[in-house]
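Input (structure):
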Protein backbone atom coordinates (compact mmCIF):
# COMPACT_ATOMS: atom_id res chain seq x y z
CA UNK A 1 0.00 0.00 0.00
CA UNK A 2 2.88 2.34 0.84
CA UNK A 3 4.41 1.89 -2.64
CA UNK A 4 1.06 2.64 -4.28
CA UNK A 5 0.81 5.92 -2.39
CA UNK A 6 4.40 6.82 -3.30
CA UNK A 7 3.74 6.14 -7.00
CA UNK A 8 0.50 8.14 -6.79
CA UNK A 9 2.20 11.12 -5.12
CA UNK A 10 5.27 11.02 -7.38
CA UNK A 11 3.09 10.60 -10.47
CA UNK A 12 1.05 13.65 -9.59
CA UNK A 13 4.16 15.77 -9.14
CA UNK A 14 5.69 14.37 -12.33
CA UNK A 15 2.59 15.04 -14.43
CA UNK A 16 2.30 18.57 -13.05
CA UNK A 17 5.99 19.23 -13.73
CA UNK A 18 5.65 17.86 -17.27
CA UNK A 19 2.68 20.14 -17.94
CA UNK A 20 4.43 23.25 -16.59
CA UNK A 21 7.81 22.69 -18.28
CA UNK A 22 6.48 21.39 -21.59
CA UNK A 23 3.95 24.19 -22.01
CA UNK A 24 6.31 26.89 -20.73
CA UNK A 25 9.11 25.94 -23.09
CA UNK A 26 6.83 25.42 -26.08
CA UNK A 27 5.36 28.90 -25.56
CA UNK A 28 8.83 30.49 -25.50
CA UNK A 29 10.68 28.38 -28.06
CA UNK A 30 8.89 28.26 -31.38
CA UNK A 31 10.41 25.50 -33.47
CA UNK A 32 9.18 23.04 -36.08
CA UNK A 33 9.49 20.24 -33.53
CA UNK A 34 7.70 20.13 -30.15
CA UNK A 35 10.55 21.60 -28.05
CA UNK A 36 8.73 21.32 -24.73
CA UNK A 37 8.32 17.57 -25.15
CA UNK A 38 11.95 17.22 -26.19
CA UNK A 39 13.07 19.13 -23.07
CA UNK A 40 10.97 16.96 -20.79
CA UNK A 41 12.19 13.74 -22.40
CA UNK A 42 15.85 14.74 -22.15
CA UNK A 43 15.67 16.03 -18.57
CA UNK A 44 13.57 13.03 -17.53
CA UNK A 45 16.18 10.71 -19.03
CA UNK A 46 18.94 12.57 -17.21
CA UNK A 47 17.05 12.17 -13.93
CA UNK A 48 16.37 8.49 -14.66
CA UNK A 49 20.06 7.76 -15.22
CA UNK A 50 21.04 9.73 -12.12
CA UNK A 51 18.56 8.11 -9.75
CA UNK A 52 18.96 4.63 -11.26
CA UNK A 53 22.59 4.60 -10.15
CA UNK A 54 21.85 6.03 -6.71
CA UNK A 55 19.10 3.49 -6.09
CA UNK A 56 21.16 0.56 -7.35
CA UNK A 57 24.07 1.59 -5.13
CA UNK A 58 21.62 1.67 -2.20
CA UNK A 59 22.43 5.34 -1.56
CA UNK A 60 18.71 6.01 -1.34
CA UNK A 61 16.16 3.86 0.47
CA UNK A 62 14.44 1.30 -1.78
CA UNK A 63 11.08 3.04 -1.21
CA UNK A 64 12.30 5.99 -3.22
CA UNK A 65 12.30 3.83 -6.38
CA UNK A 66 8.48 3.85 -6.41
CA UNK A 67 8.33 7.58 -5.67
CA UNK A 68 11.06 8.80 -8.01
CA UNK A 69 11.50 6.46 -10.98
CA UNK A 70 8.06 4.87 -11.30
CA UNK A 71 5.98 7.78 -10.01
CA UNK A 72 7.67 11.10 -10.73
CA UNK A 73 9.86 10.28 -13.74
CA UNK A 74 7.30 7.84 -15.17
CA UNK A 75 4.69 10.60 -15.22
CA UNK A 76 7.17 13.35 -16.13
CA UNK A 77 8.63 11.84 -19.29
CA UNK A 78 6.42 11.96 -22.31
CA UNK A 79 7.50 9.34 -24.79
CA UNK A 80 3.91 8.49 -25.66
CA UNK A 81 3.32 12.18 -26.37
CA UNK A 82 6.53 12.32 -28.38
CA UNK A 83 5.44 9.33 -30.47
CA UNK A 84 2.01 10.87 -31.12
CA UNK A 85 3.54 14.23 -32.06
CA UNK A 86 5.94 12.51 -34.46
CA UNK A 87 3.09 10.62 -36.14
CA UNK A 88 1.08 13.86 -36.36
CA UNK A 89 4.03 15.55 -38.12
CA UNK A 90 4.19 12.63 -40.57
CA UNK A 91 0.44 12.82 -41.20
CA UNK A 92 0.82 16.51 -42.05
CA UNK A 93 3.66 15.50 -44.42
CA UNK A 94 6.17 17.46 -42.34
CA UNK A 95 8.85 14.86 -42.93
CA UNK A 96 11.94 16.83 -41.96
CA UNK A 97 10.57 18.02 -38.59
CA UNK A 98 9.32 14.45 -37.95
CA UNK A 99 12.80 13.09 -38.69
CA UNK A 100 14.48 15.62 -36.40
CA UNK A 101 11.91 15.05 -33.65
CA UNK A 102 12.51 11.30 -33.85
CA UNK A 103 16.30 11.59 -33.99
CA UNK A 104 16.71 14.23 -31.27
CA UNK A 105 14.34 12.56 -28.80
CA UNK A 106 16.05 9.20 -29.19
CA UNK A 107 19.68 10.33 -29.29
CA UNK A 108 19.50 13.08 -26.66
CA UNK A 109 17.54 11.01 -24.14
CA UNK A 110 20.02 8.12 -24.52
CA UNK A 111 22.93 10.52 -23.99
CA UNK A 112 21.11 12.09 -21.02
CA UNK A 113 20.69 8.67 -19.34
CA UNK A 114 24.44 8.06 -19.68
CA UNK A 115 25.29 11.56 -18.39
CA UNK A 116 22.97 11.11 -15.41
CA UNK A 117 24.70 7.82 -14.58
CA UNK A 118 28.16 9.40 -14.92
CA UNK A 119 27.18 12.32 -12.67
CA UNK A 120 25.77 10.04 -9.97
CA UNK A 121 28.83 7.74 -10.17
CA UNK A 122 31.13 10.73 -9.78
CA UNK A 123 29.07 12.02 -6.86
CA UNK A 124 29.20 8.59 -5.24
CA UNK A 125 32.99 8.47 -5.67
CA UNK A 126 33.43 11.90 -4.08
CA UNK A 127 31.18 11.01 -1.17
CA UNK A 128 33.00 7.72 -0.63
CA UNK A 129 36.49 9.27 -0.90
CA UNK A 130 35.57 12.01 1.57
CA UNK A 131 34.46 9.42 4.07
CA UNK A 132 30.93 10.83 4.15
CA UNK A 133 29.46 7.46 3.30
CA UNK A 134 30.41 4.39 5.28
CA UNK A 135 29.43 1.16 3.52
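Output (sequence):
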Amino acid sequence: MKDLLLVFFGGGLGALSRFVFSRGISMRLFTAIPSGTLFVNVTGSLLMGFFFNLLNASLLPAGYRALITVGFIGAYTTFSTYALETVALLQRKEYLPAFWNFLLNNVLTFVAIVIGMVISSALYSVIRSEGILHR
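Notes: The chain has five helices and no strands. Residues 43 and 76 are 9 Å apart (CA to CA).
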